[in-house]
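Worked example 3 (structure in, sequence out).
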């Protein structure tokens, strides 16, 4: 009898705990996904059972994880504990989680990492430990039991030491990311135990540590990405005492700073890595004007790199940059070159002639004009080039452009879109084998015989065309979207056409003659367009079809979504003006454009969430409840935040989602409590340039002081102080 009574009491206790769990996290009821994020929890709620596979406890106030907290959650696959206040974990807290595949402990207060935490996590593939307080990984490896680990992210602003043996037990990684901007001590050989890393990302400033890490990774990493480093002179070889063959194929520098002296040295040093095929420089700064040690570079022999990508590299005195005379021997093997958004205005003719192997050349979003293009593409330059992208430059004459490019005898694909050509002449000279031509968004009012007849693909979208009457016998694809066409092109001049895009024009009728003899794919005509003579007799059918079309369009363009949004708006207006203090979970809800996410997530969030004391920010990417309607997410997050912080930019005022966040907040924030709004101006915006639909924003920018992000580093500290004071007020 006592056994029955004991079983009864145990079942009753379990049922009681499950009821408590449902009260704490309603989403845990009858589902494998348990979302308890942003609920102000101080401990892991009791009642977790084996049916739960995903547990989200992020953005709470949990400080300690006890042995019994997760003991029953034996089928857990995903455990999210980021952005809490965890400072201690019992040694056996995770021992029952043998099926766990993803564990996120980032942005907590862990001052050390214990190997005991991970020794039973045999299935773990994804581990995030960044943003804590530990200074090193201990004397041995915390990861020795993680044989299936594929993704590892660790490090923080205090992280300063990597010791030999810290990565023992890890053999293969798809991605390893180390946040080590203050990493000062690296014991050589520490990373050699990892046999293969597909992609390693490391934030680093110490050049000595950089060199040591490169030497250790020569035989294991395929793609090495180095961020935030300020490169200085390095005299020692990067491959000293290393044996062939090497594995590293791609090297990326991001947010790095170079000098002329280091450019010369790194070119020489990287030649020693004979496996290196691709180099990238993204969002970097070059302090210099091309005064490189050409003699030293030439003596070191030819470069074997085949692909170079340079994107948004700032050269402060770019107008004084030298012509790199003497670098000809370094570009012979290059097959692909991209220099984008870097204010390039020419390549010297003598240098261009030595790019003998280049097949792909991308100069989009630069400062090329026609007379400089003529020198860049001089006779015998780029002899093997097949694909060229000159979009978003300052080319004005299509005739001069064509004449210059006619020297590229092997050119097949050409993109000169988003240049301002305007009127084009009746005749032009192009490369004889040109097959693909992109002339979209080029302000062309009328096409002429200047367009080459060798084309197989032509894109003239987004111009001001009112007709298309060209004869292009080889053309297979034609893109005419966003023009002013009132009739389709004739079929006879385009006998091989198989695909045509004519959306967003002014077409109002089609004739049978326009399609005779042509094989045009993907053209769909409505019943009205094909049978105008039968309109009266088929009026009832058309009404029925119209209803079906409206239903289909409503489904395709989310009409139900907009109705629900309106209903949510009306419900929100009836809510109390201010949420009770106990319901405030965040210091600020951050509204920003996806295009500004790099600044928000990597700069602002790091500055504010790692402040002392830290601020709790609400970001849609990480804090919106998965599966919850996005409008409800916006309203709830604004109501649970002490402030609403708008990151203003040109991208912001073009974003529809940012407009929704403004709309949902203005009646509660702007109209009722101006102090709840903080405006951060990421880039200058004229009030008159703001679209009329942002009327509330226009008004408040004229009446309320806002914070401007200063480009100068010496002014940025004052900016962060002002922003923190505004968040505290």
């Amino acid at each position: 009898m006592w056994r029955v009574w004991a079983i009864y009491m145990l079942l009753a206790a379990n049922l009681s705990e499950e009821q408590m769990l449902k009260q704490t996290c309603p989403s845990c009821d009858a589902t494998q996904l348990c979302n308890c994020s942003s609920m102000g929890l101080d401990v892991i709620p009791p009642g977790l059972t084996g049916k739960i596979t995903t547990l989200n406890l992020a953005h709470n106030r949990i400080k300690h994880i006890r042995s019994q907290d997760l003991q029953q959650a034996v089928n857990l696959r995903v455990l999210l504990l980021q952005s809490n206040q965890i400072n201690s974990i019992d040694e056996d807290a995770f021992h029952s989680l043998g099926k766990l595949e993803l564990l996120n402990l980032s942005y907590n207060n862990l001052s050390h990492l214990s190997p005991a935490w991970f020794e039973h996590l045999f299935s773990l593939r994804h581990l995030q430990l960044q943003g804590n307080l530990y200074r090193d990984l201990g004397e041995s490896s915390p990861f020795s039991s993680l044989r299936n680990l594929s993704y590892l992210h660790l490090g923080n602003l205090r992280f300063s030491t990597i010791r030999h043996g810290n990565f023992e037990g890890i053999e293969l990684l798809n991605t390893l990311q180390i946040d080590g901007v203050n990493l000062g001590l690296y014991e050589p050989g520490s990373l050699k135990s990892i046999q293969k890393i597909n992609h390693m990302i490391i934030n680093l400033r110490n050049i000595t540590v950089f060199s040591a890490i490169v030497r250790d990774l020569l035989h294991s990493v395929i793609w090495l990405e180095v961020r935030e480093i300020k490169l200085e002179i390095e005299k020692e070889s990067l491959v000293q005492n290393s044996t062939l063959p090497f594995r590293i194929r791609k090297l990326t520098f991001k947010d790095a700073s170079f000098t002329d002296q280091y450019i010369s040295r790194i070119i020489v040093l990287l030649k020693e890595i004979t496996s290196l095929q691709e180099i990238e420089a993204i969002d970097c700064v070059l302090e210099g004007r091309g005064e490189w040690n050409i003699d030293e570079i030439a003596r070191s022999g030819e470069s074997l790199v085949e692909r170079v990508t340079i994107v948004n590299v700032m050269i402060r005195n770019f107008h004084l940059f030298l012509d790199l005379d003497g670098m000809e021997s370094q570009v012979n093997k290059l097959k692909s070159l991209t220099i984008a958004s870097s204010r390039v205005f020419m390549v010297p003719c003598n240098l261009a002639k030595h790019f003998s192997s280049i097949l792909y050349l991308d100069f989009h979003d630069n400062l090329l004009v026609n007379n400089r293009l003529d020198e860049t593409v001089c006779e015998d330059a780029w002899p093997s080039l097949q694909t060229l992208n000159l979009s978003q430059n300052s080319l004005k004459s299509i005739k001069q452009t064509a004449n210059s490019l006619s020297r590229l005898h092997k050119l097949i694909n050409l993109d000169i879109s988003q240049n301002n050509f305007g009127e084009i002449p009746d005749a032009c000279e192009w490369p004889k084998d040109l097959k693909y031509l992109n002339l979209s968004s080029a302000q062309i009012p009328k096409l002429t015989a200047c367009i080459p007849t060798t084309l197989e693909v032509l894109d003239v979208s987004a111009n001001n065309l009112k007709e298309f009457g060209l004869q292009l016998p080889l053309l297979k694809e034609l893109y005419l979207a966003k023009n002013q066409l009132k009739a389709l092109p004739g079929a006879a001049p385009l006998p091989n056409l198989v695909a045509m895009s004519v959306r967003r024009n002014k077409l109002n009728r089609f004739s049978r003659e326009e399609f005779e003899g042509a094989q045009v794919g993907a053209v769909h005509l409505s019943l009205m367009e094909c049978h105008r003579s039968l309109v009266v007799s088929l009026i009832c059918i058309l009404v029925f079809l119209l209803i079906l079309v409206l239903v289909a369009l409503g489904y395709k363009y989310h009409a139900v979504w907009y109705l629900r949004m309106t209903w949510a708006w009306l419900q929100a207006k009836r809510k109390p003006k201010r949420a009770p203090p106990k319901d405030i979970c965040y210091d600020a809800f951050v509204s920003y454009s996806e295009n500004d996410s790099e600044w928000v997530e990597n700069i602002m969030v790091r500055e504010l969430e790692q402040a002392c004391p830290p601020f709790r920010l609400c970001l849609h990417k990480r804090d919106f409840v998965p599966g919850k309607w996005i409008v409800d997410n916006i309203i709830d997050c604004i109501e649970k935040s002490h402030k609403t912080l708008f990151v203003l930019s040109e991208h912001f005022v073009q974003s529809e989602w940012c407009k929704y966040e403004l709309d949902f907040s203005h009646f509660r924030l702007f109209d009722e409590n101006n102090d709840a709004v903080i405006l951060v101006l990421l880039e200058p915006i004229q009030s008159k340039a703001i679209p009329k639909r942002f009327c509330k924003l226009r008004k408040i920018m004229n009446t309320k002081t806002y914070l401007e992000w200063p480009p100068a580093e010496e002014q940025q500290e004052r900016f962060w102080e002002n922003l923190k004071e505004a968040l505290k007020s």
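Notes: Confidence is low (pLDDT under 50) at residues 1-15. The chain has 18 helices and 32 strands.
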